[in-house]
Batch of 4 targets.
Target 1
Amino acid sequence: MNVVINGQDESIDVTTLAQLCKGLTDHPNFIATAVNGEFVTVGERATRQLHEGDKIEILSPRQGG
């Protein structure tokens, strides 16, 4: 299915947000996620189904000063 991840068109073959996060990072519990502008908690990701055209935002903390 085709979705938008952080503003980029992407084709994915997973169906839940948890599966997507696991495939994108080694530390999926240390990122923030939103689908179509709605924040999705770590606990909700396994049941959050993804659909064609969803807009997904994935943010990770950065160290700096």
Note: The longest helix spans residues 17-24.
Target 2
Amino acid sequence: MVELKKSLGPVQFFSIGFGTIVGVGWIVYMGLWFEQAGPAGTAVAFLVGGLMMSLIGLCYAEAAAMYPVAGGEMNYAYAAFGPKLGFAVGWALVLMMTAVVPYVSVSLAWILEALFPGISGPTLYSWRGQPIQLTALLIAGGYTLWLGLLNYRGIRGAARFQDWMTYGKIAVSLLFVGAGLFWGSAANLTPAFQRNAAGSIWPGFFAVLATTPWFFGGFNSVPQVLEERTSSTTPRVLGAVIVATVLASGAYYAVAALATGMAGPWAAIVKADLPAAAAFRALDSTELLARAVLLVGLLGVLTVGNGAVLSASRNLFALGRARMVTPAFTALHPVFGSPKTAIVFITVFGLLGNLLGRRGIGPIVNVGAAAASFAYLVTTLSIWRLRVTAPDRPRPFRLPSVAIAVVSSLGALVLLLAALRQNWVDAGGGVPLEWGVIAVWGLIGAVLWNRAQGARAALGQREQRRLVLGDEG
């Protein structure tokens, strides 16, 4: 069995989880969230989403402790429902995690343009009405290549980098969040909840809630790299880490929304470029707080991008090892021990995604939210199923009640339906671009699955099960 190096402890797992969840997205999206739900509505949506995700995280904790090998959700679906659904979940997550790379690369260019106005360079072309400029494209491409190189050189360096950037991000965040909460004004939150033409707060609330599967999505980076834990790091501890990353991230998003809303009259800044920075600029004319927000955005780009490449490459590695796609993805670097083919694939995908520019961010988030919700739903259902089909399987981390899995499944279903519905709403009743992307990705997956059929047959069902689930035969 081709295995990955053992290099990660609890601190690294938390920084991979939290660092991949909380990035630049809240800075880019805060204005849209406020327009949809208002600052209080945004905070409540993320608290509700965080509670729902923490229950889902508990399910992940039990499943990950049972099968602590690379592959995450693919493993759990395989064990509970068989290889076809296992592949469907794994392939959906490849889409979600790989799409994060152009998302953060384009966001990095956007933030640097805000920090250093005038660096954009000449316009090369436009996509969906947004000009794609030379310098922004070079920044995004350079960052994508750097992410690939960092991970190509092995997980030890990538994990150390993740630690420094994550805890640095938390430290800088305390500066402007504290300023917003203690120096801002509650009067700036008015109206705290945004209402639609009929006077209802619910459409806006659910619009924000529909994005939460994407914005909490990084916690499932932890199961993807469990195979690389040190011998002293127990599955039970890692189960607790998974839940802790979700709760900490939910609190961060909610507090950041309130602090941003209190920093300045939010209705006056939502149309600004990067409204979160604009809000703190209104609070502090020295630009210190606004630049602190942008610095956190930069650190977030680094941690989310690094975590995405880590998890996506391990997912592809696991799919290849199980012969669900070509086994070429199992190739490891002879010195660094990294899944080199998977990392090259993700880097190339990211470079192509960068060509979409800023207008590509919205569709990426929407597709990612649907893919993540699908994975959450199947994972929570797997807990039910495995309690019946594998009752004697050791569970170092066990849910106190299977009712948590029931509630989590219902919550994941709500998130999936909300994500798909929001695509339709945003498309104005037409066929959403996101649905087309999902359909094409599904067709590509079907082709890869069929092409790997001979390799699976040669492997045999018993051996495939051992490769997917670890020591189990």
Note: The chain has a mean pLDDT of 88.
Target 3
Amino acid sequence: MVLEGMSLPIPSEVVMPLVGYYASLGFIDPVLGVLISTFGSLIGSLIDYYIAYYLGIPFLLRYGRLFGLDKRRLNSLNRWFSRYGAAAVFGFRFLPGFRALISFPAGLAGMRVVSFIAVTFLGHLIWDSILVYIGYEFATQWSLIIGLIDKYLYVVAIMVAIIIVAYIALKLRTKPGYSDSAEV
């Protein structure tokens, strides 16, 4: 779970139902499994947060064009994150693919680490608990459940991402007095 928290392609949708499955067989306590996994995810998320925090805006101003980021986009991201940061970190913890990536903008924006830890821990705790519960309750059908979760959550995540990007783009285009010369 540390690796999943660090944005590596190890999906909790596969790992956590297995914790529930093994809990149903009596090999692991489900509460202990959730807590250990949640702390692992938090550690991985903190690693990404601090990478972004210490590399920061100067790194992205220098190399951001490789990722399609320029000063204007960084300013937009910073303003958006200043407004929705804690809610974004919490909410994105439930979206596959974005779950770990949200740690980078949090670190870039310099989100207070205590707030980051609180909303990250809570988001991971809820997500991990749901997945362990599914694995526990459907232990006899765990491979079917993992396949369904993995398949449909990515569809939902893509739809939510499109809506968020469209909303941000619309807000930036219709915002009166928007200037490209804003400071980062």
Note: The helical segments are 2-5, 12-24, 30-63, 71-92, 98-101, 103-108, 113-137, 142-174.
Target 4
Amino acid sequence: MKRYLLAHDLGTSGNKATLYTTDGHLVKSIVYEYETHFFNSNWAEQDPEAWWQAVAETTKAILTDISSKDVAAVAFSGQMQGCVCVDQTGNALRPAIIWADQRAQKETLELVNQIGMESFYKITGHRPSPAYSIEKLMWIKNNEPEVYHKTYKMLLCKDYMILKLTGKYATDYSDASGTNALDLNTMSWSEEIINAAGIDKDKLPILAASTQIIGGVTSEAAKVTGLCTGTPIVMGGGDGACAAVGAACIQVGDTYSCVGSSAWIALTMDKPIYDEDMKTFNFAHLIPGLVMPCGTMQTGGASYSWLKNELASFEVLEAKRLGKSAYDLINEKAKSAPAGANGILYLPYLLGERSPRWNVNAKGAFIGLKMESKREDIFRSVLEGVAFNLNVILNSFKKHISVKEMVVIGGGAKGELWRQIMADMYGIPILKPNYLEEATSMGAAIAAGVGAGIFDSFDVIHEFLKIEDKVYPNRDNTQVYDKMLPIFNECYESLVGVYEKLSKL
């Protein structure tokens, strides 16, 4: 009799439910999309009930071909750094403020003034930023006191789903390390930060390992999802940490990059990397005892999506006519432009920026446009601009560790051109595994398997993940990019004052 592991990956654009056999075979994957409300320039919210509907509907759809009795365990991966305020009955009190939201600038400054940027960085592994959960909860306290007063617990995205399934209020260490309130040295909530934030500590959930069975499916949740009452729900983790396992980034020194809506580069280490300029940060890994130094930019794949939607209407229409992907046509066009996009640089700051700039007022820009500039140059510049920004992050890590190669996952890893640009720019081989958009859910599924006692350790990922393609650097292109990277950085620095003025209009 086959046994199955069900993983839900709650991303920015939707939930992906994926069913795996316990020997690592992907059986079925279903996506349910939900909306993000972007407003006030850099605010971003989602409806937590839309997440729950997505989980319930995809679970029922997944179970149409198998018996729910054969599901050994369920685990979650979720978008990190959000803020979901729930009351004592488990109801969300307002829309969730998600990772992309940058409204809590005043609250961030309060923490900097009270604790200091460097001291804060050494406690949490992160600098204070509006991107994180505790600053968002502070904003709610300052601006929506009635909501704050009613808040029983602040949860993260996946935690709210676990609450709906089990009735338990908890989070794991990887997600907790994205709240800006976890002391990474003691793996406990930081009293110093909580006091400085003016937050009631009892509003934070209990902490649990990613592999802990947090509870069983309640009878009420079983009716909604089709799961059996009592099915074990394993904690899982934040999407970045789950993706690390799904990319087989589980040994010290392993490196991977994910290019989804946001994009990041991360390592697996046994201790944090404290960057002297604080460009990068550190999460707790999904694997107990390890950490995940990381640098995350706001609009990686989102820049690519913006390009498609706003500047590639011809390719979109042509793709429909041909029954192809619009991105494939964009890539074909971009491939005809040379490395360096004939002198066009794209600054990928459409939602402000986290790592490496840490500037909520940063804006996107095309620099170097000429009368002879062509659409293919612009298309290629967007792919290169994202890679340039990630390369700034990578170079921060290279001060501390030698990076020999990199696994790349996420939707952005599908395109051979983008992988080649990364290889050329980073000067290292880029590896494409057999699971790209499923890597995050696979990490969650392995956590479920370890938690349920099916797998002895996370090393089982090496039995599931296979490298399908390896792209090597074109050294001629590397030389071009090496010359352009300082100009890319100079473009950003030159516009910092302009961004500040634009933000005040």
Note: The longest helix spans residues 475-503.
